[in-house]
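Thread: Newbie trying to understand structure tokens

Hi all, I'm a second-year student working on a class project, and my supervisor (Dr. K.) asked me to get a predicted structure for one chain before our next meeting. I've only ever worked with sequences, so writing a 3D structure as a token string is new to me. If someone could post the tokens and maybe explain what I'm looking at, I'd be very grateful. Here's the chain:
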Amino acid sequence: RCHLWALDWWGDTAAAYVRVENETMPEHPDVIFEDCSMASPQCALKAGNFGFDTSMRIKLIRCNLVALNFSQPQGTPIDGAIQSVEQGKLLHVDLEDTTVMGYKVFGVRVNKETAKDITYSTTGDVQAYVQFQQEVPKGFYRLQQWPIDTFQSILPPKMPHRGVQFESTELLIKDLCEITPIVWKGRLCHMECVRPGSGGERKDYYLRVVDAETGEELTRFAEGYGLGCAYVEDNVFYAFASRFEDSNWNDVTMFKSSDLKNWESKKVIEQGNEHLFNSSVCKGPDGYVMAYESNDPTWPAFTTKFAVSKDLKNWKKLPDCGFGTNRYTACPCIRYFDGYYYVLYLESRSPRRYYEAYVTRSKDLKTWEVSSANP
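---
Reply by user tm_fold:
Sure, no problem. This is what the structure looks like when written as tokens:
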């Protein structure tokens, strides 16, 4: 149930490529494509590869295969919308309620004369639209007119237009950035980081705690700090934030209070040849873990580093643990569940510069498993 496009005109590119190294032809399909549209200039479905003398069986159910090159015989025709690379005998295709469009249905790239050895079966409504001088294999219904519906199927499905659900022009708070939802003494609250987009004075940077329902400000603290996160345990409020100084972000400092009025503070992560940005804290089976964002010049900015603590006040860096040393992995949020540390973070996408939320997990903070469901 997918749309597969290969838009490279050069070579033997295919929308779908299958290679299975069976010594003999199997009795059952190796691969099943169901409700798929495949489009390519040269070949919609390719089986095998150069130098491989192995067999494979493919089943197509309610699929549309389109090879866009409808060249004349004297021009540059394709080998086949469905192609076996080395020899015809190495491919068997089962087609059910499927339509094929292209110069011809079957072909072989290398030993072209063996195209007749491709075996196949047809079930239900199997159709083909080919160049008028080409034969249609037995069991296929030859389409006389351009199949508009089939050709339209190669377009990606349209996303439903949901319209405007609500409209508001009310400014809630200026320069609001990171937010951590927490429960403080039975009240759902937000710890908010307020800061300008750039520049500003020390007084423009601060943290505050507000009631999530009413918006009432319960406290304002940590002037000159931002990029913070919050953690509550045993009726003690902990905040971790970076200090904005000399037009950059520095270290990670802990703020602690049991009444949101009287605050203790301590620098808990001191930066090296770097600057430190967002941080996040969670509780694991052996204590507390902090994920913090670094622009360490050893790696591409930004990299996620880790530290551990037994009491939330004294932290030890883990120099052998990290994530994102080969690419941008910013704004980490760490949580622990069922034996895994999960980190939600931002990936920088290109060539158009934008950012998407990704998730990865690890049992030891060293080996990471990126989710197949990203982004």
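A couple of things are worth pointing out once you decode it. Residues 148-152 form the longest helix (5 residues). The mean pLDDT is 90. Feel free to ask follow-ups in this thread.
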